[in-house]
Each structure stands twice: as structure tokens, then as C-alpha cells.
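pasting for ref
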Amino acid sequence: MSSKRYKTCKTCGLTKRLSEFNGHHQTADRKQPHCKSCMSEKILRAKNARVPELPVLSAEGQIEQALKDQIHELENGIERLRAGKIDIQIRHGKVTVTI
């Protein structure tokens, strides 16, 4: 087989005619590294891939989530304070917090 007329697909590993590969302007042989059939399967898998839907929150739901996030941050701060990872000092009416 002449190497100018055939190429090995990087996906399936089969040696095929150059006509079985789509063009690509950045490769030396001006052909994609994957044959047309492997590229078709790859595109089909990507199209059929399911993207999980994120729940759409109402305005009330968004507020509730924001409050839950703030409560979580406060709880983490309390835990860090109890563990001695946060130092709070009050001097001359000024509060200094060291994390």
C-alpha cells in the first residue's frame, strides 16, 4: 500500500483510503486523523449525550437558596471560631477578626 493513498485512523486503527477521511488544513496530509465513520459516531454520541437539566428556581426559590447559602457560611464560620481558627478581638470599640 502506498502511504500517499492510505492512512490509519487514530480511533479505530484501521488503514483506509484517504477518501475515507475529511479534510483538515493543519495536518501534513490535509486530512483529519479520524476516519469519516468514526467522526460520524463521535458526533452522534455527542448529540445524544444527555445534559442534566438544572432546576429553574422561582424568585422565592432563589431567595430561599441565597438564605440557605448564607446560613451555611455562618455555620462554617461558627465551626472555625470554635476550633480556634478565627480570633476576634475588641479594643477601643474596634473589632479585629483574624482568620
